[in-house]
């Protein structure tokens, strides 16, 4: 054997030994035979104990926060199981999907074992109910730091709920410069599809990127007869119109309150936009009322919106100061007006939910696609409940008028920006419950009686993602399909000239 | 022969500059950075952030040249220990020197040319000043250096391969180097092409001139333009306008702006010169003769070059006194070294408003405001920077925290983080604010992030321990002033980005539920700063009631005499005033009347009063005028 052969032999032996070490160290975990049972649930983040999940959701990953030197987790349904070692529980997509298929309509059981000082503890097992109600495969949201006035990089992103894929729909930096920044907001879709959708670009290259029947265009929706360009949008699910609130909005800051900031409307109305005639029309423009957050009924014949009666009472010398002093007096009811698609005319106003009679404020009405429930955020005052810790989600049965809080889904912190899945069985919303300042997305099942199950945090590939992620999730919306345009394609349109929208008193 | 040369006096040798200059340069730069710029380096570290874990890496990599930003952030954190950080910085400069020599085969006699990039790289950082708050470019202190090193390595490889490999190398390097190293990959490809062209010209073979000269240059130019265009579709966060400059610092790019030519272009000069030096070295690749025709001429040439570099280096070293004081004060404030904070104010003739605010906070902490507040230089020096520098971006967060405005301090942490990314300084302010606000869950979010840093883990854990024992917080002397100032009801308010004006107005008007002794004094101080006679007596009354003092401090006595003189009908007979203060005030009045009779205006009187009365409130009231806060 010459030197070269000797070297090769030594290399081969070393490689084999290394491989063996790796194999041994990576050996599959086994459930500890001798463990002490604990009566307490394991401390895990995110908290996925006893939640109801859709059968097509991406694997729930979590980290075990219990002290330990080693961990074993068994996720099982009948004979099928996933065994995982380590404190980070990250099932593979294939294993998870296989287990989900087995567990549809029933529970999966999750058992956590932790070893500390050679002693294994078996924590109280918990279950996750795998609902047969599937969830729309995509959601979209705006990722924004929990900012107040400043903005820099913002994205409207889309996420495939069946796995962890996230892509950018649009990034504001694609058509902005350091000196000329732009804000993007208010993405919305018609019937969960992306061939009719929109979002706004504010300031530099401003306008509304509007996709009508698959064709994107930039609109300038400001007219002399309306308060502002369109703000909060709502596509009519049946007819070719979009309702917008138009707002003169301001932000002002709490000097001590942990709510931190108030977003207030000095003035706000509701308009509708007709993409066929490229015109807007005022719907609700009472000077003493602040109207905001429009939403259509599933048949497209009723427009819901929030409305607050607020007039100056000489406590200050202008409306802005009055609103600052009396900000707790601004309370919204939820109103509705019938709409005739043939004449484009609106009928009389009807109060759906009189929050002011309860001394509270209700905003962000969202009707379930089956037309049964009105979902809204209820807080003590104001319209921008995403900054109000007392804001909770409520539903009202539109057939009976009775209403109740979604107690299982709510938390002690702010809940808002909610939306219904297309099958009316899931709600998606923003909550600040994790750290009180960054909104995270939670999903909760709502049964046929309007009762919500415990909400679960949108799963990520790494359970350590959220604590370090410095963006809030705004305005989550369900989608049945991803947006078909690339961010660069949209940027080209954003850079172009905007098509001017005209005012029409008839709406046609 | 060799040994004979070696035995010569070092200063007589033709290669003495390169033998001496690198070690001298490295030692000098290290010493300057470690000692002279120590506070600035620590501020740069505080204005940066590097986190362990995949998310931070992924975030950096979302833009072209992300790897440079990531590595730059990693290295910047070592400025936490300025001497260590400076040593790393200097070591990298030495690597640039070595690679420049090796890459361009620079003979010993001309090795001083390799010093040029070092001066230019140094200048890209020493010129920064207030840009450290405004550059939206993570790891900016190291990005240019690392980009240069990577570019040199690529050029070194290029120069060692046969010319047949030139086009493939440029194609691969441009295409794959761009996402990792941005513009540095593109510029180095141009240098490679220039080297190839230069060698082809010298080779004299026409075919090679076409294939290895013009063709390579054409490919490099084409790739310079097309590679970023190709990658543009893969990055959703960079506008088209900026894809070719990825990795370069974001000094305002708007060349149409009025101030661009005179204010911004100078910042680009070191970068442009750096590129031109390497282009020149590429032209003369392997062409500089190692034979010295005239030893003395070569000697003079080299020292002249170094002299020019030194002049350039000095002219690009930002030495603004107020900027340096602000940085030192900030460090001292974090350490609670209040006497040092106040004393630093004396190092300038005309302080910035931040320095004055810091000094007043220090004196408030020391309980010396009434005796010393107006004995320091005062004013509102214009900020020496091409951009509008706001306290909201510099020291205003500290002011808010010290004055107990925790929500506003936190708000600006978040606002600044939105524009410039989270930095250690913002995270620490957020932690301290939310701790004293009692929002421990939110505080833990930020301590958790700090625990992913190399040097701030212990600090974060210390604050977490405090949150676990909230009863201990009020006993901590670090929090005495902010907690004493946090005695006001919640209200909706806005500062319009003018922190000093907001604080002085808010505090002097006493928007408080209960006047703590410290708040009462702060209100009186703010009142005197605002020269507001209308609210003075109320503030004085509260101060006297709360402080329960034996003797009214000198400045407050001065204010009593002044405002009673200006506001007729106020009875001050029960306020004890020192005879010395009365006599001095009488002298001040006499002198004022004397100069008035002579027809002097206030601005003309100021120098006449300075020697005798510059340490009085009266001087501040009448002669320190036109203060502009930022």
Provide an overview of this structure.
With 508 residues, chain A is mainly beta. Helix content of chain A is 11%, strand content 43%. Chain A folds into two domains: 42-131, Immunoglobulins (Immunoglobulin-like, Sandwich), CATH 2.60.40; 138-502, Neuraminidase, CATH 2.120.10.30. In chain A, the strands form eight sheets. In chain A, strands 1, 3, 5, 6, 8, 9 and 10 form a seven-stranded mixed sheet that branches. In chain A, strands 14-15-16-17-36 form a five-stranded mixed sheet, with helices on one face. Chain B is mostly helical and 630 residues long. Residues 1-7 of chain B have low confidence and may be disordered. Classes of the chains: A mainly beta (508), B mainly alpha (630). At the A-B interface, strand 13, strand 19, helix 4 and helix 5 of A face helix 4, helix 19, helix 21 and strand 1 of B.
CATH topology of the largest domain in chain A: Neuraminidase
Structural class of chain A: mainly beta
The most extensive interface, with participating residues per chain, is:
A-B, 47 and 51 residues
* Secondary structure: number of strands of chain A: 37
Radius of gyration of chain B: 30 Å
Number of helices of chain A: 5
Cα radius of gyration of chain A in angstroms: 26 Å
Shape of chain A: globular
Question: How many strands, what sense, and barrel or not for the largest sheet of chain B?
Answer: none
Low-confidence stretches of chain A: none
Counting DSSP E segments of at least 2 residues, the number of strands of chain B comes to: 1
